[in-house]
Specification:
zinc ion binding; Rrn7_cyclin_C; N-terminal domain of TfIIb; zinc; 3% strand; mainly alpha; 3-stranded antiparallel sheet; transcription; elongated; Rrn7_cyclin_N
């Protein structure tokens, strides 16, 4: 009955472009294909004198709810796409420009889908399994800040700032909307996604399989491309401080994206990211995507060792005068040259510089040159500095290594204790969740 009442509303659904409308209990139009509810409503005559009308409306609502219990038809790569979007939004909140999400990370992800033959190619591996209707107009549905739709977008891919473009398809096709509640397809009984089981077993040679750690590799590569002021160590720190979704990131999925079974093994992560592991995955992903040479790291770039050394000297309260020595070490070692610092994935030996680790290493070398750091000279020099400062209180004080060490060690120990307590709470909560799940399973045995 509600379908007959809504026949007069002939506009296309903004979500799936279908023209098939029903009425909700509040009188608003909803799409029977994707269940998108519009702001438009139908003016109805009051039915207070007809008691059966309310009963029928409630029954219709219950039926629609049962249809939605299955949720959307979605693929694993769409889940990773949603996580990448959430991570990009988190970086934007932390001060990164919107260009990172809209221009760089978006294009990296599109190139990954193309290289792995999941979209943006002539014969995507998934679109043949999903029923969809070709749009009659030329409107684009490739905005990844809406619902996951990249699997169906065949628009041409181009790099921002790189000056290179990927090869477009032979025939440009119109985008396909996602059929979010297809009645002809059902998710696997072992997973909420359509390909959860297949994905967990897939071992395709030459294809980099998407994982949660690789989402951070994508983010780190995007930050490097934009030459942002966030290093890999900063990125991992933000993850551990829960500023960037990673642990249990699947909890941010839309309610309609049902996730269970094999999906948990793909998206649930129970260990913190490791610096070396993410670093290796950055090179692995960049090589697989066949990315061009990244923008040059010049002397005025934040990632240049001269600038990073100054930043770290200030953070650990070391004398500003040490910066001139770090600059000399950088120049003598040749680690400040553009060709050395700039990441080039297509080079014979593809490798990127650990910019933060390199800057800290330069500072340690300077400390070694000044104080030897043999657990003897630094303390004897500290005694001399302490006596000088006592005798010449009006002059500029000399740097006291012992005093600096004691202050920094206390601060470091406090931070480390808080960090360990935070980790212990997470491990405890995870173990409690496991105990609860395990006890629940025992009830069915």
């Amino acid at each position: 009955m509600d379908l007959e009442e809504a026949e007069e509303f002939r506009e296309r659904c903004t979500q799936c472009a279908a023209v098939s409308w029903g009425l909700t209990d509040e009188g608003k139009y909803y799409c029977t294909s994707c269940h998108n509810v519009t702001e438009r409503s139908k003016e109805v005559i009051s039915t207070e004198a007809i008691p059966n009308t309310k009963i029928q409306a409630i029954n219709r609502g219950l039926k629609r709810k049962r249809k939605l219990e299955k949720g959307w038809d979605w693929y694993v790569c769409e889940g990773f796409q949603h996580i990448l979007y959430q991570q990009a939004e988190a970086l934007k909140t932390l001060g990164v420009g919107p260009e990172l999400k809209n221009e760089v990370l978006h294009n990296f992800w599109k190139r990954y889908l193309q290289k792995s033959k999941q979209a943006y190619c002539k014969n995507p591996v998934y679109t043949s399994r999903r029923k969809a209707t070709v749009l009659e107009d030329n409107s684009s549905h490739s905005e990844w800040d809406s619902e996951p739709e990249l699997l169906s977008d065949f628009s041409c891919f181009s790099f921002v700032e790189s000056g290179t473009e990927s090869q477009p398809d032979v025939h440009t096709r119109k985008p396909f909307p996602i059929n979010k509640a297809s009645q002809s397809e059902t998710a696997s009984v072992c997973s909420g996604s359509l390909d959860g089981v297949e994905y967990s077993l897939r071992k395709q040679k030459g294809v980099v399989k998407m994982t949660m750690p690789r989402t951070l590799a994508f983010c780190s590569l995007s930050l490097l491309w934009r030459r942002e002021t966030i290093t890999l160590s900063d990125l991992l720190r933000f993850v551990e401080e829960d500023h960037i979704p990673y642990i249990n990131a699947f909890q941010h999925f839309p309610e309609e994206m049902k996730l269970y079974g094999r999906d948990k093994g793909i998206f649930a992560i129970e260990s913190w990211p490791d610096y070396e592991d993410i670093y290796k995955k950055m090179i692995e992903v960049a090589t697989f995507l066949d990315l061009p040479r990244f923008p040059d790291i010049t002397e005025d770039c934040y990632l240049h060792p001269d600038i990073l050394c100054m930043k770290y000297l200030m953070e650990v309260n070391l004398p500003d005068e040490m910066h001139s020595f770090t600059c000399q070490v950088v120049k003598m070692a040749g680690i400040g040259e553009v060709d050395f610092l700039t990441f080039d994935p297509v080079a014979k030996m593809a490798k990127t510089v650990k910019y933060d680790v390199q800057a800290v290493a330069v500072i340690v070398i300077v400390l070694k040159l000044l104080f030897l750091l043999d657990d003897n000279l630094e303390w004897s020099l500290s005694t001399i500095a302490e006596k000088h400062n006592e005798e010449n209180k009006e002059d500029k004080p000399w740097f006291d290594f012992r005093k600096w060490y004691q202050v920094m060690k206390k601060s470091f120990d406090e931070k480390k204790q808080k960090w360990e307590e935070a980790r212990a709470k997470y491990v405890l909560s995870s173990s409690l969740r496991f105990t609860y799940l395990f006890s629940s399973l025992l009830l069915y045995i």
